[in-house]
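[job 4417] fold queue: 2 targets
>>> target A
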Amino acid sequence: MTQLKETFNIGLEGHVRILGYENGETIELLNKRNAIHPEHASIVLASALANRSNDGSIYAMHFGTGGATIDSLGNITYASANTTGAADLHVPVYSEVVDDTNGAPTGNQMAVKHITGNLFSDVEIRAVIGTTEPTGQTATSNVNSSNLNSTNFVFDEIGLKTNSGLLFSHIVFSPIEKAANRIIEVIYTIRVTIM
């Protein structure tokens, strides 16, 4: 009797869109691919198959201020995305729970999208930072620019983490300012492909 052996390649690809809502207008603030931490992704996938909740799913979206440095001339230097070893954001300052089955605030949610017959599925993760947020967290920045208001929240990196704190993915970008009258929505999509 011949044993069948199935071998698949799994591809993970991330994409982030950040939208700002202010004065009745919608502004696209970021539209960019992100980096996946391959070791931590393998732990998350294996934990999900074994139904181990702490590392089997994304729990929170973390925001930081260490992704980019702007000097007095406006030159931007980007930090590298952390995707190896015991990784974290460069300067984590704020987080939002996005697991809507585990305490996420209204507006934050995750959904799986799949079209029958395709060999990929998308996990869409949404976080909304409202007009009264962030609260209780220091918003410092590597930005040296008079164009940004120091009382507003400025962030330039985002990561997705599991409940136990494993960094699944990380993205760095030019600083985004979140003024008190602006609502920010982050749509973080992870595409899982079987090849």
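>>> target B
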Amino acid sequence: MSYQKIDPIIQDWADKHKLRIYTSYQDYEVRSVDVVDQKGRKYQIWIDSPDQFGNVGVHTWDYKRRRKDYMVSTDDLRGCLEEAYNTVLLWIQTN
């Protein structure tokens, strides 16, 4: 499915946290952001397009060993993005 239905939610969330959304990777449509800490370490949050049931996968990882995955309805996406962002902030604090 397309990102069209959830793009406004993703954009509002990214604007709130001053994050840049990447929309393509190797000729594929994606929705991904990088969070960079003060030491230059990168963390990624990416969002899958909704499936046929309206569920969205949200994923975080530290480009190494830590990863957390979520599956939520499009109605719960905004809260899940905040939780994913807070997970990354916690990882940053513990590094």
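[job 4417] complete. Note on B: Residues 13 and 82 are 8 Å apart (CA to CA).
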